[in-house]
Amino acid sequence: MAIDFQTIKFDTNELIPAILQDWRDGTVLMVGYMNREALEKTLETGRVHFWSRSRQELWEKGATSGNYQQVQQIFIDCDQDTLLLKVEPKGPVCHTGEQSCFFSQAWPALDADSSLSSLNTRGGVIDRLYDVIVSRRKHPSDESYVSSLMQKGQDRILKKITEEAGEVILGSKNLDKSEIIAETTDLLFHVLIVLGYHEISPQEIYHELANRYGISGHKKTKE
Protein backbone atom coordinates (compact mmCIF):
# COMPACT_ATOMS: atom_id res chain seq x y z
CA MET A 1 0.00 0.00 0.00
CA ALA A 2 1.39 3.40 -1.00
CA ILE A 3 1.73 6.23 1.48
CA ASP A 4 -1.34 8.47 1.48
CA PHE A 5 0.11 11.98 1.55
CA GLN A 6 -3.37 13.41 2.13
CA THR A 7 -3.50 11.86 5.63
CA ILE A 8 -0.03 12.98 6.74
CA LYS A 9 -0.15 15.95 9.11
CA PHE A 10 2.79 18.16 8.20
CA ASP A 11 3.35 21.03 10.64
CA THR A 12 2.96 24.73 9.86
CA ASN A 13 6.37 24.64 8.13
CA GLU A 14 5.24 21.68 6.02
CA LEU A 15 7.59 19.35 7.93
CA ILE A 16 7.14 16.09 9.81
CA PRO A 17 9.58 14.52 12.35
CA ALA A 18 11.19 11.29 11.11
CA ILE A 19 12.79 8.87 13.56
CA LEU A 20 15.40 6.44 12.24
CA GLN A 21 15.64 3.01 13.87
CA ASP A 22 18.05 0.19 13.04
CA TRP A 23 15.79 -2.61 11.80
CA ARG A 24 18.31 -5.25 12.90
CA ASP A 25 18.59 -4.52 16.61
CA GLY A 26 16.06 -1.77 17.36
CA THR A 27 18.60 0.98 18.05
CA VAL A 28 17.11 4.48 17.86
CA LEU A 29 19.57 6.24 15.56
CA MET A 30 18.49 9.84 15.06
CA VAL A 31 15.63 12.25 14.44
CA GLY A 32 15.36 14.46 11.37
CA TYR A 33 12.66 16.32 9.49
CA MET A 34 11.05 15.62 6.14
CA ASN A 35 8.90 17.69 3.86
CA ARG A 36 6.90 16.14 1.06
CA GLU A 37 9.84 16.33 -1.36
CA ALA A 38 12.19 14.58 1.08
CA LEU A 39 9.69 11.82 1.72
CA GLU A 40 9.05 11.36 -2.00
CA LYS A 41 12.79 11.21 -2.66
CA THR A 42 13.19 8.66 0.14
CA LEU A 43 10.49 6.48 -1.39
CA GLU A 44 11.95 6.88 -4.87
CA THR A 45 15.55 5.99 -3.98
CA GLY A 46 15.15 3.75 -0.93
CA ARG A 47 17.65 5.96 0.92
CA VAL A 48 16.74 8.44 3.64
CA HIS A 49 16.45 12.09 2.61
CA PHE A 50 15.74 14.96 4.99
CA TRP A 51 14.90 18.63 4.74
CA SER A 52 17.54 20.79 6.43
CA ARG A 53 15.85 23.46 8.52
CA SER A 54 19.09 25.43 8.90
CA ARG A 55 20.18 25.31 5.23
CA GLN A 56 16.67 25.21 3.82
CA GLU A 57 17.52 22.48 1.36
CA LEU A 58 17.00 18.80 0.63
CA TRP A 59 19.83 16.50 1.72
CA GLU A 60 20.55 12.80 1.56
CA LYS A 61 21.76 11.24 4.80
CA GLY A 62 25.23 9.82 4.14
CA ALA A 63 25.85 11.64 0.86
CA THR A 64 29.09 13.10 2.25
CA SER A 65 30.22 10.35 4.65
CA GLY A 66 29.00 7.37 2.65
CA ASN A 67 27.00 6.21 5.67
CA TYR A 68 23.71 5.89 3.81
CA GLN A 69 20.51 4.76 5.52
CA GLN A 70 18.77 2.09 3.45
CA VAL A 71 15.03 2.07 4.15
CA GLN A 72 13.37 -1.23 5.04
CA GLN A 73 9.98 -0.07 6.33
CA ILE A 74 8.14 3.17 7.09
CA PHE A 75 5.51 3.58 9.80
CA ILE A 76 3.37 6.54 10.82
CA ASP A 77 2.04 7.13 14.33
CA CYS A 78 -1.61 7.17 15.38
CA ASP A 79 -1.85 10.95 15.05
CA GLN A 80 -0.34 10.88 11.54
CA ASP A 81 2.24 13.49 12.52
CA THR A 82 5.45 11.49 13.11
CA LEU A 83 7.25 8.96 10.91
CA LEU A 84 9.31 5.96 11.98
CA LEU A 85 11.74 4.62 9.41
CA LYS A 86 13.33 1.24 9.99
CA VAL A 87 16.64 1.36 8.17
CA GLU A 88 19.81 -0.60 7.55
CA PRO A 89 22.70 1.76 8.34
CA LYS A 90 25.67 1.56 6.00
CA GLY A 91 27.87 3.03 8.73
CA PRO A 92 27.63 5.16 11.89
CA VAL A 93 24.70 7.53 11.72
CA CYS A 94 26.12 10.21 14.02
CA HIS A 95 28.65 12.77 12.74
CA THR A 96 30.75 11.96 15.85
CA GLY A 97 31.26 8.41 14.60
CA GLU A 98 28.87 6.91 17.14
CA GLN A 99 26.35 4.31 16.01
CA SER A 100 23.49 6.44 17.34
CA CYS A 101 23.11 10.15 17.99
CA PHE A 102 21.63 9.23 21.38
CA PHE A 103 24.80 8.12 23.18
CA SER A 104 24.76 10.58 26.12
CA GLN A 105 22.69 9.40 29.08
CA ALA A 106 20.99 12.45 30.60
CA TRP A 107 19.15 10.72 33.47
CA PRO A 108 19.79 9.06 35.82
CA ALA A 109 23.45 10.03 36.06
CA LEU A 110 25.95 7.20 35.71
CA ASP A 111 28.87 6.77 38.06
CA ALA A 112 31.97 7.85 36.14
CA ASP A 113 33.79 4.82 37.54
CA SER A 114 31.00 2.40 36.62
CA SER A 115 32.07 -0.51 34.44
CA LEU A 116 28.73 -0.15 32.65
CA SER A 117 29.17 3.53 31.75
CA SER A 118 29.43 2.63 28.06
CA LEU A 119 25.78 1.60 27.86
CA ASN A 120 23.77 3.53 25.29
CA THR A 121 20.51 3.27 23.38
CA ARG A 122 21.37 0.33 21.21
CA GLY A 123 19.09 -2.67 21.19
CA GLY A 124 17.17 -3.90 24.20
CA VAL A 125 17.39 -6.26 27.14
CA ILE A 126 19.63 -8.77 25.33
CA ASP A 127 22.23 -6.09 24.67
CA ARG A 128 22.01 -4.84 28.26
CA LEU A 129 22.45 -8.35 29.60
CA TYR A 130 25.42 -8.93 27.30
CA ASP A 131 27.05 -5.72 28.56
CA VAL A 132 26.68 -6.96 32.13
CA ILE A 133 28.19 -10.33 31.16
CA VAL A 134 31.19 -8.64 29.56
CA SER A 135 31.58 -6.44 32.63
CA ARG A 136 31.58 -9.51 34.91
CA ARG A 137 34.24 -11.11 32.71
CA LYS A 138 36.46 -8.04 32.81
CA HIS A 139 35.80 -7.25 36.48
CA PRO A 140 35.28 -10.61 38.28
CA SER A 141 33.22 -10.71 41.45
CA ASP A 142 33.10 -13.53 43.99
CA GLU A 143 29.33 -13.04 44.20
CA SER A 144 28.76 -13.20 40.44
CA TYR A 145 27.49 -16.41 38.81
CA VAL A 146 28.81 -15.23 35.44
CA SER A 147 32.26 -14.52 36.86
CA SER A 148 32.45 -17.95 38.47
CA LEU A 149 31.34 -19.65 35.27
CA MET A 150 33.88 -17.70 33.21
CA GLN A 151 36.64 -18.65 35.64
CA LYS A 152 35.74 -22.33 35.36
CA GLY A 153 36.47 -22.13 31.65
CA GLN A 154 35.00 -22.96 28.28
CA ASP A 155 34.16 -26.61 28.97
CA ARG A 156 32.01 -25.70 31.96
CA ILE A 157 30.20 -22.99 29.98
CA LEU A 158 29.50 -25.38 27.10
CA LYS A 159 28.27 -28.04 29.53
CA LYS A 160 25.67 -25.54 30.76
CA ILE A 161 24.57 -24.93 27.16
CA THR A 162 24.01 -28.67 26.72
CA GLU A 163 22.08 -28.88 30.00
CA GLU A 164 19.86 -25.90 29.24
CA ALA A 165 19.17 -27.08 25.67
CA GLY A 166 18.06 -30.40 27.13
CA GLU A 167 15.70 -28.60 29.50
CA VAL A 168 14.12 -26.73 26.57
CA ILE A 169 13.57 -30.06 24.81
CA LEU A 170 11.90 -31.53 27.90
CA GLY A 171 9.68 -28.47 28.29
CA SER A 172 8.57 -28.80 24.68
CA LYS A 173 7.91 -32.52 25.05
CA ASN A 174 5.86 -31.76 28.17
CA LEU A 175 3.80 -29.21 26.19
CA ASP A 176 4.34 -26.83 29.12
CA LYS A 177 4.39 -23.22 27.89
CA SER A 178 5.68 -21.71 31.15
CA GLU A 179 8.44 -24.33 31.33
CA ILE A 180 9.44 -23.68 27.72
CA ILE A 181 9.66 -19.92 28.39
CA ALA A 182 11.71 -20.36 31.56
CA GLU A 183 14.12 -22.89 30.08
CA THR A 184 14.54 -20.96 26.83
CA THR A 185 15.40 -17.89 28.90
CA ASP A 186 18.06 -19.90 30.73
CA LEU A 187 19.42 -21.18 27.42
CA LEU A 188 19.59 -17.70 25.86
CA PHE A 189 21.34 -16.39 28.95
CA HIS A 190 24.04 -19.04 28.69
CA VAL A 191 24.37 -18.50 24.93
CA LEU A 192 25.12 -14.86 25.74
CA ILE A 193 27.81 -16.04 28.15
CA VAL A 194 29.36 -18.05 25.29
CA LEU A 195 29.28 -14.93 23.10
CA GLY A 196 30.87 -12.91 25.89
CA TYR A 197 33.55 -15.55 26.33
CA HIS A 198 34.48 -15.24 22.66
CA GLU A 199 33.94 -11.44 22.57
CA ILE A 200 31.20 -11.73 19.95
CA SER A 201 28.56 -9.02 20.35
CA PRO A 202 24.82 -9.56 19.84
CA GLN A 203 25.05 -7.00 17.01
CA GLU A 204 27.15 -9.46 15.02
CA ILE A 205 24.38 -12.04 15.42
CA TYR A 206 21.70 -9.50 14.46
CA HIS A 207 23.64 -8.58 11.34
CA GLU A 208 24.06 -12.22 10.32
CA LEU A 209 20.33 -12.81 10.80
CA ALA A 210 19.62 -9.69 8.73
CA ASN A 211 21.85 -11.00 5.96
CA ARG A 212 19.84 -14.22 5.93
CA TYR A 213 16.45 -12.50 6.18
CA GLY A 214 14.20 -13.38 3.25
CA ILE A 215 16.59 -15.98 1.88
CA SER A 216 15.16 -19.47 1.50
CA GLY A 217 16.92 -22.18 3.46
CA HIS A 218 16.21 -24.64 0.65
CA LYS A 219 18.69 -24.29 -2.16
CA LYS A 220 17.54 -25.37 -5.58
CA THR A 221 19.72 -28.05 -7.07
CA LYS A 222 19.78 -29.55 -10.51
CA GLU A 223 18.35 -33.02 -10.77
Number of helices: 6
Which class of secondary structure composition applies to the elements? alpha+beta
Shape: elongated
For the secondary structure, the number of strands is: 6
Strand content: 15-25%
Looking at the overall shape, the CATH architecture of the largest domain is Orthogonal Bundle
CATH class of the largest domain: Mainly Alpha
Instruction: Tell me the series of helices and strands, N- to C-terminal.
Output: EEHEEEEHHHHH
Helical amount: 25-40%
Overall mean pLDDT stands at 91
The named CATH superfamily of the largest domain: MazG-like
Give, in spatial order, the strands making up the sheet with the most strands. 2-1-6-5
Largest sheet: 4 strands, mixed
The domain count comes to: 2
Low-pLDDT segments: none
Query: What does the radius of gyration come to?
Result: 22 Å
Write a brief caption for the model:
This protein is α+β, with helices and mostly antiparallel strands and 223 residues long.
Secondary-structure blueprint:
Elements: E1 16-22, E2 28-34, H1 36-45, E3 49-52, E4 57-60, E5 69-76, E6 83-89, H2 125-138, H3 145-152, H4 154-173, H5 177-197, H6 202-212
Parallel strand pairs: 1-6
Antiparallel strand pairs: 1-2, 3-4, 5-6
Helix pairs in contact: 2-5, 4-5
